[in-house]
Amino acid sequence: MLRRRAPAPPDHRPPRPPTSKFTRLAITHALMMGGDAAMVVALADSFFFSVDLDAARTQVMLFLAISFAPFLFVAPLIGPLIDRVAGGRRFVIQVVAILRIVLLLLMTQYIDALALFPLVFASLVLQKTYTVSKSALVPSTVRSDDELVEANAKLGLVAGIVGAVMVAPAALLLAIAGPTGALVYGALLFGLAFASSTRLAAEVIADHAADAEETTQLRSGRLQLAAVVMTVLRANVGFLFFHLAFYLRQLDEGTLLFGAAVGLSALATMCGNALAPRLRGRLGEETMLSVALIISCVAALSLALLSGPVAGIVLACVVNFCAAIGRLGFESIVQSDAPGANRGRAFATFETRFQLAWAVAAFVAVAIQVAGDVGYLIVGWMSFGTLMYVRSEASGLRRSGSSTDETVPPAPPDPPDVDAKRPVDSVDSVE
């Protein structure tokens, strides 16, 4: 006679809390940054850095122009349409991840040919496209505006830490299997990023076009001046990256020096993201942006006097650090000066502008042939000129009696139960 098996005792363990929206975005972001790091390591020992300098300069100028031209005209037109579709930005991230896989696998076939150049620059365009979509998604992953700046700072830290960690396996594969091994590793990371992106929430970033209030607030004087500062800080990053790429190539161990510049710049960005929230508690947003410009200016002009490759590496670290500090100050101004604006749409719009500034400055760096210290001077004088312009305009706004445009209407108070209706989804889960 068969005995009936006793029922299993009930499981008294508490249910596992669901993964927050921010954590899912952070995981996807980490994997995307890991794939980027693997590609950079693979290119260090490829035709990309071994081709003749004059030929490289021509190819880079051509492909920067070709690659970013569609981004310039299409992004402002397609972006608003994508924001109105449920899961539109998530879909963009998924498409970018798939295309990055395809491009990295194609690079393995053309690692020693000129065809490598369009593949690399197509990857750069996709990288910028991902950044815009990620910026649009961040506001939907937090409970309140108070968490928004903290969330962006944490994503910056994630990018820096993961980039540093993912470099080690890529470098090992580069030593064992050459650039092909590192590229396949990068493609695998982008594949994991695609899988992770399928778990992102299908958010509608902006279900309606910008109304008169949002348009007016985003054109406020203080916000527009902050955008100018951030545009120049991001342009400095793009200019110096390509300036050093060609300047250091002319020197002995140039590839190693450029690799050090890229790695240390990523570390400096991570430090800026870690320090920025603390500075925000002690300094005003305008002060943070002004300090970022002043540090960039003083460092660039001082290091131009010292000259040399080490000065360039140090300046790259300073410029990236200042861009991280400035970004947080800018985001704080968007929150305070445009309370009626849709955060996702606003950040995507401004991020598109900043990425285009990076591309234009990169093109200029490649197009002009200047010595290393002259390039440093350009960064310094750009920062100085922007600082003088912004201070002059800010003085005009203060004389008019307001730090923002007088046409900006006061924002209506939030309903008291707005936070209670939003799902509990804290950025603390990423710690």
Can you tell me about this structure?
The protein is mostly helical and 431 residues long. It has two domains: 20-209, MFS general substrate transporter like domains (Growth Hormone, Chain: A, Up-down Bundle), CATH 1.20.1250.20; 217-405, Up-down Bundle (Growth Hormone, Chain: A), CATH 1.20.1250. The protein has helices spanning 21-43, 53-83, 88-109, 116-137, 145-177, 179-197, 212-218, 221-247, 254-282, 285-306, 309-337, 343-367, 372-399. The longest helix has 33 residues, at 145-177. It is globular and about 60 Å long.
Short recap of the structure:
By secondary structure, the protein is an all-alpha fold.
Sum up the structure in keywords.
13 helices, globular, Growth Hormone, Chain: A, single chain, mainly alpha, 74% helix, 431 residues
Number of helices: 13
Distance between the termini: 56 Å
Kindly identify the CATH topology of the largest domain.
Growth Hormone, Chain: A
Number of strands: 0
What is the share of helical residues?
Answer: over 70%
The topology string of helices and strands comes to: HHHHHHHHHHHHH
Based on secondary structure, the structural category is mainly alpha
Taking the sheet with the most strands, its summary is: none
CATH architectural category of the largest domain: Up-down Bundle
CATH superfamily of the largest domain: MFS general substrate transporter like domains
Provide the residue-averaged pLDDT: 79
Strand content: under 5%
Categorize the overall geometry. Answer: globular
| Overall radius of gyration | 23 Å
